[in-house]
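User: Aminodeoxychorismate lyase. Structure?
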Amino acid sequence: MTSHDCGTPTPSFQIISSLRYDPELPRVTGSLPTDEYFPVPRHSPYYLLSYHRDRLINAAKHFQWDEALESLQKDLSVFEDFLNSAIENKVKSWRLRILVDRHGKGLVEVNPVGAMDCWNLLVPPLHKSVPDVIWNVYVDSQATIPSGFTTHKTTARDDYSAARARAGITSPADTSEVLLVNPDGQIMEGSITTPYFRRRVLPESHDTSQPTWVTPPLKCGGNAGTSRRYALEQSFCVEQLIMSAELVDGEDCWLSNGVRGFVKGVVILT
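Assistant: Predicted structure:
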């Protein structure tokens, strides 16, 4: 990374990724028996650090931003140093929003974030705490057309803002989510989270060891989120098409993102 001042990128959007810095996270991940339960570097206070860099790299490749790609493909320690330079008080938890323009210039926005049990950052089977908040999960009333701006996270988020407004979600602090739906009626993702639903179709073998939870495939148009990748690699879930018409009022689900980890939700259709 070359600078904390992005200037005015051309075209007028940046690729982004948001993650949690939490000094308590290494205590939790360090207590896991092996690296197989959490991606390397396991003892970092940055949640899913390497996945966030990978996500930015994949976005730079998609948009053919060669200068950004060259900058992002440096050693992971360079990326971590870039984040470290933006945090003045490392004994507190922070929400970091990383923005990178087409020239590889980066900016890190640092904002306070509420305290939480870091066990909630692990996939639910590894949780050692009971979720104390259940999110209301709504379904968008209008379809969103998939594009590179839904597959990759960027500052061009008008579709997401519109979906949240239609659902009556007025603040990032709201414990509510809205599910985006593509023109074929398939669930894409949440406006700020990856959703997980109870499995609709079981394997033909009726193998009970298979994951109970499913998440929409990327071909539906949703974002390749970092916590989604973690959930898939940990076999918490598998990909499966979820039609909006299949959802049941009151059914439980999980939601995840790179700042909050995994939270419980309930689908509200009325």
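The first strand starts at residue 15 and ends at 21. Helices lie at 25-30, 49-62, 66-72, 76-84, 148-151, 158-166, 226-233.
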